[in-house]
Specification:
The protein has 230 residues and is an alpha+beta fold. The protein has a single domain, classed as Class II aldolase/adducin N-terminal domain (L-fuculose-1-phosphate Aldolase), CATH 3.40.225. Helix content is 42%, strand content 14%. The protein has an eight-stranded mixed beta sheet. β7 and β8 form a beta hairpin. The radius of gyration is 17 Å and the shape is globular.
């Protein structure tokens, strides 16, 4: 089994940098009220090798440091780290193997997004910000048991049907989000919880007015290609 010592200085330098990024992004999960206790995890894939950095399993957030982050290959085997990796490692690895443009994955059990997952419902696209960010509804993925790559398979299957969405609500489990890096996936997790909360509140007031797909496509195109700094 390969260890980090088997990789060159460029890879080891990126591992050091990504460990720092991934450790700090777990603080954002707490800041945006997306996790409790030790639930949830962030990973980021390297550009210089087929490796990823992920949170250790069951370690409380206040104890996380860059050195406690675990380096794994894209089959989920540990390459470097003193701790066991997240129980979601096999699913993160599956997503990276099957979605080559994805370099960040986040899993949370944030309250409102997970409530939609518990009822097996897509979050309907009733907000322009959902058109911007998700290109339609936030989809529900199939029920899968934790501990293997089965959840990752469900995420990939679902996103093939909703290619503009960076989020999947795995039924009876919770949201998984993707991004071009780990920060992008954390942003998607925060946005998923925000729209889940707002659409739940809208349901209490009455029927949600869903936006036509043609208008959603225009919103998403503008957000993707015009909005922000380029």
């Amino acid at each position: 089994m390969a260890t980090l010592a088997d990789y060159g200085p460029e890879v080891r330098a990126e591992v050091k940098q990504v460990r720092e990024v991934v450790a700090s992004l777990h603080e954002q999960l707490i800041k945006w009220n997306l996790v409790v206790w030790t639930a949830g995890n962030v990973s980021q894939r390297l550009h210089t090798a087929d490796l990823m950095v992920i949170k250790p399993s069951g370690l409380r957030y206040e104890y996380l440091t860059p050195s406690s982050m675990v380096v794994c290959d894209l089959d989920g085997n540990v390459v470097d780290g003193a701790e066991a990796p997240s129980s979601d490692t096999a699913s993160h690895a599956y997503i990276y193997r099957h979605m080559p443009d994805v370099y960040g994955v986040v899993h949370t059990h944030s309250t409102y997004a997970t409530a939609w997952a518990a009822t097996g419902q897509n979050i309907p696209c009733g907000l322009t910000m959902m058109g911007d960010e998700f290109g339609g509804p936030v989809p529900v993925g199939p029920f899968r048991l934790i501990g293997s790559e089965a959840i990752g398979e469900g995420v990939v299957e679902t996103l093939k049907k909703y290619p503009k969405s960076p989020a999947v609500l795995m039924q009876n489990h919770g949201p998984f989000t993707i991004g071009k890096d780990a920060e992008g996936a954390v942003k998607a997790a925060a946005m998923t919880e925000e729209v889940a909360h707002t659409m739940w509140a809208a349901r209490q007031l009455g029927e949600i007015i869903e936006i036509d797909q043609a208008d959603i496509d225009k919103l998403n195109d503008r957000y993707t290609n015009v909005y922000g700094q380029h």
